[in-house]
């Protein structure tokens, strides 16, 4: 016996199709919105991490600028207000790290015997090296000399001599720096004259993605961080007598990502700190 079998009408099928289409469209819109939010959040986190790393790096170098460098050598060779097209150049001895803590000094007629804290420190110096003696606190340059023959690793001893007349002339000095007869203290520091320069600048030629660059003397530019849009510098109290530097660093998300029309726009973040130079 045949039963009455009734199917869907055309109108019912159309209604179901429209409703399903609306559900799919809403789901897709929600997915796209969530995806854009996730990409933007990831970009913002990346900018914040880059800012923290870049700020720590430049602050560390500024902090050591001028530390244990000879008198007459400025901590900062340039003092730009920002790094957009400008170089920040600082002088430091911290690239080679050839220094030794002095424990005792014995005067001779034109030489001094210096006992340092560790035999490995003796290995850092060679005959003929130009060196200086500093007192870290209060910061003061005590003497200048040349490493002479007679170093003794086992005794932790280095021999320093005064500069010759030719060496004084070659360095453009009025007279040889003091060496014999200086009142040295345990804790004074012997430093090799390895002053080198570190340069920072901002490369904005890569479209919407700027790079903070760091260069050692004679070296290539190394990328410290990307997505850094600006670095502003203020010198305290002024550029003529820098004691500290206020750094305002700004970063932004990639214009080719969040800057697209279907995203919410470029997001910016900023960090600020004040760095005191250790030699001041």
Defining traits:
single chain; 280 residues; alpha+beta; six-stranded antiparallel beta barrel; four-stranded antiparallel beta sheet; elongated
Helix content: 10-25%
Sheet with most strands: strand arrangement: 2-3-6-5-4-7
Main sheet? Answer: 6 strands, antiparallel, barrel
Number of helical stretches of at least 4 residues: 3
Following the backbone from N to C, one meets helices and strands in this order, namely: HEEEHEEEHEEEEEEE
Gross morphology: elongated
**Which parts are unreliable, with pLDDT below 50 for 5 consecutive residues or more?**
none
Class based on secondary structure composition and strand pairing: alpha+beta
What Rg do the Cα atoms give? Answer: 32 Å
Q: Got a strand count? A: 13
Q: Strand fraction band?
A: 25-35%
Average the pLDDT over all residues and give the rounded result. Answer: 86
Distance, first to last CA = 107 Å
Describe the overall structure.
- It is built from 3 helices and 13 strands; from the N terminus they run αβββαβββαβββββββ.
- The longest helix is centred in the first third of the chain and has 55 residues, at 10-64.
- The radius of gyration is 32 Å and the shape is elongated.
- The relative contact order is 0.18.
- Helices cover 23% and strands 34% of the residues.
- The mean pLDDT is 86.
């Amino acid at each position: 016996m045949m039963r009455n079998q009734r199917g869907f009408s055309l109108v019912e099928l159309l209604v179901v199709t429209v409703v399903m289409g609306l559900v799919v469209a809403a789901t897709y819109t929600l997915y796209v919105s969530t995806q854009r939010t996730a990409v933007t959040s990831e970009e913002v986190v990346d900018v914040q991490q880059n800012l923290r790393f870049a700020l720590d790096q430049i602050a560390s170098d500024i902090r050591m600028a001028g530390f244990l460098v000879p008198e007459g050598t400025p901590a900062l060779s340039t003092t730009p207000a920002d790094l957009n097209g400008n170089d920040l150049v600082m002088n430091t001895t911290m690239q080679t790290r050839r220094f030794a803590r002095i424990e005792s000094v014995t005067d001779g007629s034109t030489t001094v015997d210096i006992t340092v804290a560790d035999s490995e420190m003796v290995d850092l110096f060679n005959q003929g090296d130009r060196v200086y003696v500093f007192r870290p606190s209060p910061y003061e340059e005590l003497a200048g000399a040349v490493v002479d023959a007679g170093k003794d690793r086992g005794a932790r001893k280095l021999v320093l001599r005064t500069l010759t007349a030719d060496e004084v002339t070659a360095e453009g000095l009025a007279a040889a720096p003091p060496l014999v007869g200086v009142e040295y203290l345990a804790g004074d520091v012997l430093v090799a004259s390895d002053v080198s320069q570190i340069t920072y600048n901002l490369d904005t030629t890569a479209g919407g993605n700027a790079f903070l660059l760091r260069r050692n003397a004679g070296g290539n530019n190394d990328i410290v961080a990307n997505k850094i849009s600006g670095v502003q510098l203020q010198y305290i109290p002024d550029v003529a007598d820098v004691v500290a530097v206020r750094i305002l660093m700004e970063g932004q998300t990639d214009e080719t990502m969040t800057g697209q029309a279907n995203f919410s726009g470029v997001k910016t973040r900023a960090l600020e700190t004040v760095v005191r130079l250790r030699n001041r």
